[in-house]
Design goal:
By secondary structure, this protein is an alpha/beta fold. The protein is 33% helix and 26% strand. It contains seven helices and ten strands. The chain has a six-stranded mixed β-sheet, sandwiched between helices. Strands 2-1-4-5 form a four-stranded antiparallel β-sheet, with helices on one face. Helix 3 crosses helix 4 and helix 3 packs parallel to helix 5.
Length: 235
């Protein structure tokens, strides 16, 4: 029997107090597995951002237990969580945060340089990943010269460069046309199925539901549906 890579039990998060208290996340349970592309969907304000922020160890739940890759995050100090996040979690934000004054190669190597790797080591790893996404010929260019789809691929491999086991992508197709969006989802689907990684995608984009192995639907701070029948969710 497969063990889930992400386990949440009774996760709860509120903001404000007393009459101003807002439940961003209501005692939520979830499991996410390696070798699957999992979509997290729901309207704005449904709790998706809060949930992925907790999974990414950026946000601490008020209640509940979070286990990532077999490790109980609740038992970690803030420094330990930060170290765990740097080694195991790659995040691709909706705003890609590519630095225009750096080259594509320098953008990709940045997490390794910050982690203390030598420039030589970082460049070797970055060039491997650039080759993987067929963008090695653009390594010396500014990311501003790339198409939106190419920029998205650069942001994804930057999230992968530490060999992160958990990849979280926030709305990776929202700014892309159909063709570019489908290319990104082909890449993420292959990444999920051919590697020992968790790939969790937050999206509003119903065009990409068919790529999912599993879809988790949220509303009003809780999970209301989990489905592998992704075609039914498009209707």
């Amino acid at each position: 029997m497969r063990e889930p890579a992400i386990v949440g039990r009774g996760l709860k998060k509120t903001y404000g107090k007393n009459e101003n208290e807002v439940f961003a996340l209501k005692k939520t349970d979830l499991e996410v597995y390696k070798h699957e592309l999992t979509l997290l969907v729901g309207p704005s304000g449904s709790g998706k951002t809060t949930l992925i922020s907790i999974i990414a160890t950026i946000l601490t739940p008020d209640e509940g237990e979070l286990i990532l890759l077999g490790q109980n995050i609740n038992n970690m100090t803030e420094n330990e969580k930060s170290d765990f996040r740097c080694k195991n979690i790659g995040i691709v934000f909706q705003s890609l945060y590519l630095i225009p004054t750096l080259t594509v190669l320098e953008n990709v190597t940045l997490p390794l340089i910050v982690a203390g790797y030598s420039e030589h080591e970082a460049n070797i790893r970055a060039k491997e990943l650039l080759n993987y996404v067929h963008l090695e010929h653009r390594s010396g260019f500014s990311p501003s010269t790339l198409s939106k789809g190419q920029q998205q691929r650069i942001a994804i491999i930057r999230a992968m460069i530490n060999n992160s086991s958990i990849i979280i992508c926030d709305e990776p197709t929202s700014a892309l046309d159909h063709v570019s969006g489908f290319e990104i989802m082909d890449f993420l689907q292959n990444l999920a199925r051919q590697s020992e990684k968790v790939v969790l995608v937050v999206t509003h984009d119903s065009r990409i539901f068919s790529y999912a192995d599993r879809v988790i639907t949220m509303a009003d701070g809780e999970i209301i549906q989990e489905s592998r029948e992704v075609e039914s969710l498009k209707n």
